[in-house]
Amino acid sequence: MRRAALPMVAAGVLGLMKIARAEPWTVTMETGAEADTNVERVETVAGAMTERIAAPVGRVGARFEHKGQALGGTYALGASALARLVASGQARSENVMLYAGEARWLHPIESRPVAAGLSITAADALAITGGTGARTFLNLGADGLLVLGNGEDRSLTLAFGGRDFSYKPSHAFDWQGMAANARLYVVLWQTSGKTRTLELTTTFGFEERTYASNALSDVCQPGASPDPRCYDGTSLTRRDRYQRASFELDWVGAIAATVGYQLTVIDSNSYGQSLVRHRIMTSGTVELADKLFGTATATLQIDQYPDGVLFEKNIQHQEFTNLEDENRSSLQLRIARALSAAWSLEARGVVWRDFGNTGEASFRRELIYAGVIYSH
């Protein structure tokens, strides 16, 4: 079955290459291999049957982008495909392909620094060796946009629209709802030659999610500890209020450095689904030698569950925007070497852990990757 999937993957990537040949399209391709110590991203509990599966993984993907003018405004198009193939018969569901696309059009309002437009996004993850596939999903979104500012030194982007999400392994996690987002970008300081800059980006987001399942209720004895066996269904539809705020400071000079903080608050009428998440990220990139760059990224994530931890985190409160999302703390080291204007080599190592987890389950995952990137 895996052999039959390879031509399908190759055909998808070659199709993107064919489209991208026409200027002014730009294309980025990657292929490589990684060693993953927990390909199924499972939590383990002492005495339980769940075990981590370690296996080699192959990756191949491409992304193309195009910008232009139409109907008195500017547009941007993007599409991508990424496949992960696991060399283990025990983890066939991890053979997954992700297709994603986005389109954005903005029309300036007279001579003012204001533009209005539309944005459409879609992402579809599917199994490529049969079955449903692990963590596969379909995510659709559409927004009306209003952009204030010149876009170079400062801009404020407001978006309001809707989302339609489907989680293929369990449609109890499907949801629909309205979404509102705001993004403020400001250049705080820069030299006259713009060789050194300090930038600030802040975001605010809100989603009203209505699920295709009923809310759960707490049936534990008063004062009892949270227990996954101690809840029951209700006749109420599950509804979540998803709120997120973040800021990020970026410094560009002899080194490139980023520090950021994100707060996510989910208020749910379903027992065990509310969440407060704190996420701190810092990253630095420096040139180690001629055309050799090193990047270190550290992410600290602390989750607080008002009702206690009732469900495994591998399916709870994921972002579901790509195949790489992992709702854990991590440390990543990346080295990239440019071979030419278009070709480069990349190697990285990542370690994921859970911090602040008060439950019995623990999570461990390590990954080493090496690959080649083409960009033109």
- Helical/strand content category: mainly beta
Number of domain units: 1
Distance between the termini: 33 Å
Strand-residue proportion: over 45%
Q: What is the makeup of the main sheet?
A: 16 strands, antiparallel, barrel
Shape: globular
Number of helices: 1
Number of strands: 16
Rg computed from alpha carbons, rounded to a whole number of angstroms: 22 Å
The assigned CATH architecture is: Beta Barrel
Give the mean pLDDT: 86
H/E element sequence = HEEEEEEEEEEEEEEEE
CATH class, named Mainly Beta
CATH fold label:
Porin
Question: Which runs of at least 5 residues are low in confidence (pLDDT < 50)?
Answer: 1-10, 16-23
Q: Determine the fraction of residues in helical runs and give it as a percent range.
A: under 10%
What topology, given as strand order, has the largest sheet? 1-2-3-4-5-6-7-8-9-10-11-12-13-14-15-16
Describe the structure.
The protein has one helix and 16 strands. The chain is mainly beta and 376 residues long. It has a single domain (2-375), classed as Porin (Beta Barrel), CATH 2.40.160. It has a 16-stranded antiparallel barrel. The radius of gyration is 22 Å and the shape is globular.
Characteristic terms for this protein:
376 residues, mainly beta, Porin, 16-stranded antiparallel barrel, 1 helix, 16 strands, 5% helix, globular, disordered N terminus
